[in-house]
Amino acid sequence: SLFRDRRRVEVEGIMTETGPHPRRYSHAVRSRKENRTVTMTYRPDGTIETVIKPKESPGKRKKVPTRLQRNTLDPLSAMIAATTRARQPKDCGFQAPVFDGRRRTYIRLSFRRRERTPVAFAGVPAWSVKCEARLKRIAGFRPRAIREHPVPPPVELWSVRHPEAGLWLPVKLRVKAGMSIVVARITKVTVGR
After folding, report:
1. What is the distance of C-alpha 103 from the center of its chain?
2. What is the pTM of this model?
């Protein structure tokens, strides 16, 4: 590999019948180009307190207005909401406003096909549902990013219904990022009792 990029993403909150309700979200990036942590705390009044360390250079991107941060999900909660809700096997229909602490997007999933599950370990069904996610940029993007990639590339997402947990779980994600392809795979599922 030419470079290493390590990310740690965590979300704390509650899951209800209407989906995830995050209370705290954190995203740490460690790479050759960037070492940054973004932490978001969801307040009862609907606002989000965001702490970015180290702070970005002023003028790098416009700050997302508070009104566009309200009633959003963090990226991990959005993925959980999209894949864990009750649905039919061919139903990838999901859309949500997303805020990651620096950028505001709108995500929409659509069904592509059923296919063999691209990961194999105990408890994962042989067949998965492949969806495509499209992002619409709303605010907080660097002008250079918009010039270089006017339309964000689609994200492919495979999910399965875990028989023991009774939930839809994301098992693989793939997206083109510049000259690379980013792939994330689930490696373990533990069902608590």
Report:
1. 12
2. 0.75
